[in-house]
Amino acid sequence: MNNKKFLERVTELLLSRSKADLLETVVVFPNKRPEIFLKKYLEEQASGSFWMPDVRSIDELISELSPWTVQDSMVTWFELFEVHKQIEGEKARHPDEFINWAPVMLRDFNDADMAMANVKELFSFLSKAKALERWHPDGSNLTEFEKAYLDFYNKLFRYYDGLKKSLTEKGLGTKGMVYREVAESIETGRVLPWKQFVFAGFNALTRTEQQLILSLKRNYPVTLLWDVDEYYIYPKKHHLPWQEAGFPLHQIFKNLKIDRPEWIENNLLESEKEMTLVAAPKQVSQVKFAAQLLTQWSDSDRSGSPVDTAIVLADEKLLIPLLTSLPVGETTYNVTMGYPLALGSLSQFLTLWVDLLVRQHDQSNRAYATALVLSMLQNSALQFLLHDSKTAIAKAKSFNREFLSGDKVMSCFVEADGAVAATLFQGGEDVSQLFNRMMKLLLQLKNKMDLSENQKAGFAEAALVEQQLSSLMVVMKKLSTVVRGNENYFSLKVFQKVFSRLVAASEISLKGEPLNGIQVMGMLETRLLDFKRIIILSANEGMLPKNSSAESFIPFDIRKEFALPLPDEENAIYAYHFFRLLQRTEEVVMVYNSEEGNFGSGEKSRFLFQLEIEAAKANPNLHLHHHFLKIEPGNRPAEDDIVIPKSETVLTKLDALRTKGLSPSALNQYVKCPLQFYFARLLKLKVPDGVQSTMEANVFGTVVHEVLEEVYKPFINQPIDPKQLTKALGGLDRLISASLKKNYPSGDVTHGKNLLTIKVLKRYLERFIQEEIGQLKKEPRMMVAVEKELQHSLLLPDGRMVTVKGVIDRVDRAGEQLRISDYKTGSVKKSDVNFKEWDQLLTDSKYSKAFQTLTYGWLFQKNHPEIKQLQLGLFSLRNLSDGFITPKMQASNPGEWVESFETVLATILAEIFDEKREFTQTTDHASCEWCDFKSICNR
Question: How far apart are CA 779 and CA 883, in angstroms?
């Protein structure tokens, strides 16, 4: 067992060589990051002057050895499109469609070259396999689609060959082509600048890299240094099952003919380690826990050097929350990782803007989608540029339309923001002009950032804005290269796709000082580095390892046959990075999100299960602990629950409400949640206004009720005439339009979702009236009242009178039986109104519709005690097939059920007006999901 860091051992080996040897040596690493640590250790360990060997990453080495330059993948798409046009001629696809294929095709070409596959044979095999798939045993002819499908696969090698010729003529190549060229030509007698090669810390090598090493070994001294552990290299030796972390290494050893690799340690099975697995609900609790742990470590005597501590983020999205949570003080933090540019507020803003312009271009009236305009205005990047974003947001909302004209959008901005608004909303629609507007906007942002540090600090939020700007300028430079010379191919949609893919493929490169402070990095940045203490966040399945879902035209079995990369190989590489990171650590804390959700979230990584089931049992010195954070939302201690006592002010409001009257909906609200009743009925809190670009349910219901009132009003106190109802069907459009004008004055119902909603609304009404016409032919009815307002006062046990009021949608009569009906536009099940015990109405809001219907019946019976036959129920316009839905009450006549229901009603009212009973939150958290006030309650 060796406790020295891997790079320290590499340093010792190099210093054991002569100065002449070092002068001719190149050290090759998998990536660039280890170089700075190697130089540090060389400086610390060297006893005198020495020749510094050359240090290269594998990519740098290949670039120096190849006569070709790696072409940017985005530019290569359009090279491939030129090949596509040459092959297909008049049948060539539009760039907007072809750009969806290009990345997949190029990825397959790259994989084939990296695997040094016989590309012609590969695509010939693939073409034959696809032909077998489409073969018709009955001898029938192929469809035109099937012919086109097979034709595409038949031409894949022509695409590959044409692209290769096109690029190499210009001294260019894809990454796979460049790697392959070096691997195949390294022994052709070319003069190399080095005589000795050291490959250090590789755990996965492509076939091209393996061929390069084999070729070098035949002509030069080549040293291969492995950073590996017996746990996953020789598991059988320790009676352990096969380990995926060792799979790629065994393949390398086999292909390079290495019988006994050097530097194999046994740290994971012998060294002393403290490991803690922490289950933390929600992402934010992970970073809060990490911050607390760092504080504990810094306060302890065994904290050691900060540079020996690392926070590893399996999910890069946690970077911003982490940086805002880290404890401040003397400790410094070094962030060295790639943060996805797509997660930055600035790139999100530009993506929104381009999307807005593309959609505007598709609109016949060239209007802007209000929802996208508001999203842009609420983005922190644009808010930084504007003097008054709040006024613009409020004005845009006030129009309450799904789409806004350019003039209306411009009118939202104050005069001082006119220049920025003009850049965004006034300009040409061709790609060149859009590109210039984007550059202008970025320069406006940069100029404003340069004004003062205070302004910049107010916007930067974790100091990422400058890096975003820098990365976006690189994206714009690439975009300019792609656009230039390809203007004929670029529609706005093509521009949008190219820009989105460039952003998605880009990172904000955060490069700090790796030799100082606590290190914050991603999993791949940890390669070849060792730390005494480690915190790993988001140690969940799907993050550790990452889900792999790369598209390919080549199916799994053919990829395997031709040794192309497979998903399980990528997982094995990730497994190696994880277990290698643990080899020399002394203490590691692995935090995973325990919150259950979709797609397996809440499940800890299989690597953590492996530590529990295998490693901890195999290594008696590995002490594994479990910790569960108890920060479950909504399950806070009782003393944190919101409780509203009935103060004098509250009692005064209650007294006014007692006299004014309570509706069935108010009483149902109390049953559902007393605190919600308090917020809505006593404090009269309102939900903030937003843009109702689509008609809301309350407007839908109001229009339905008003139209039915107008349809049935002529029949009051007389029989309902089916012939007149049939005529009324022809006037529905007029009635709907009149109601919308009153209840949805600024809404646009001429297109989009609103138009569909109106069609659904009209269909509901037509079906209901047509159903009514059919029923009337079987059983005539007389209309008694529509939208009838009733109220009655109930005496409480304390002697106070409380008014209950309501509006009954419809009262009609068939013979001697009176029927009270309520219209519901939503879906209602019979189980929603069929309660078994009267007490269920006091505690279960599921029966709110039954409660409402019974309240109407109680009000009518109290106002008309002479009525002896009364039927209660409702119509669900969504499921009319269920007919008239009636609650199954436990009494057969009105006198009995009225008495039982009045007891329920009196109980609820007594609770509401009991001076000693407080307003509290409901214990049914499902009721909170759609509550307007859940943000106040933190539910």
Answer: 14
